[in-house]
Amino acid sequence: MHIQGSMVALVTPFHQDGSVNFEKIAELIEFQIAGGTKGIITLGTTGESSTMTNEEDDAVCRFTVEKVNGRIPVIAGSGSNCTQTMLDRSLRYERMGVNGLLVITPYYNKTNEEGMYRHFATVADAVHIPCILYNVPGRTGCSISENVVRRLAPHPNIMGIKEASGDMSYASRIAKYLNEDFAMYSGNDDVIVPILSIGGSGVISVWANMQPREAQTLVADYFAGRQDAALASQLKHLNLINALFCEVNPIPIKAALNMMGLEVGPTRLPLYDMSAPAANRLHAAMQEVGLL
Fold it and tell me: What is this structure's pTM?
């Protein structure tokens, strides 16, 4: 499975009492598919899986697979800092019918080189669907070394890496391992074009929650030879993208979707409502691109 384009890191909408809003998930899925999104990432960082119970995670995953119904790939975040837990979740989501898995580095406890390799290889060896490695050291406190990427890239069940370090030097060093069977996806919306320029295949996007058509068009333009148009879109939306990360994700994107009238509800503690200055900045950035 080689996906080229924009995949959305979908928010998980909640009712005001904090329970999962499944009707709204269905609406968001239709909004994304209508907007041309090439894949749905559920239960990722943006989906607030870290504040949800195992039962809620399972219910959201199952519901998403059923509602998408094969129209585009569904990739589930099955990661954990416990390899056995990640394995259990991965096998469970595979049985639910997901098309792929997003697997993260072992946050908090971290590990050494061999432990990092085996953390991912354990899952990739056991499942029969593709896995995307997730490198986001700003959140996890550890990174996938170039050497571990080199070792994992040829694995038949590892389809790529979500590169969210923001370090273009690192991204350039691992780009040598990219091919039809191992892709790189930008995990940061502010560097989509730079990642594409070194061989990336697309983006796993927070921004796409609100503008799926624009995110997909940016990537499509780049691969159609319209790099100037892709760059113009990247720069046009840069203030908005930066505003979406002026507080910890997914606080701003849920606030933005609520401003748009999509009513995705609150975040769960320890995430909390945006500060007034940050909300004003986000509102102004949305007005700038005609969203409000």
Answer: 0.94
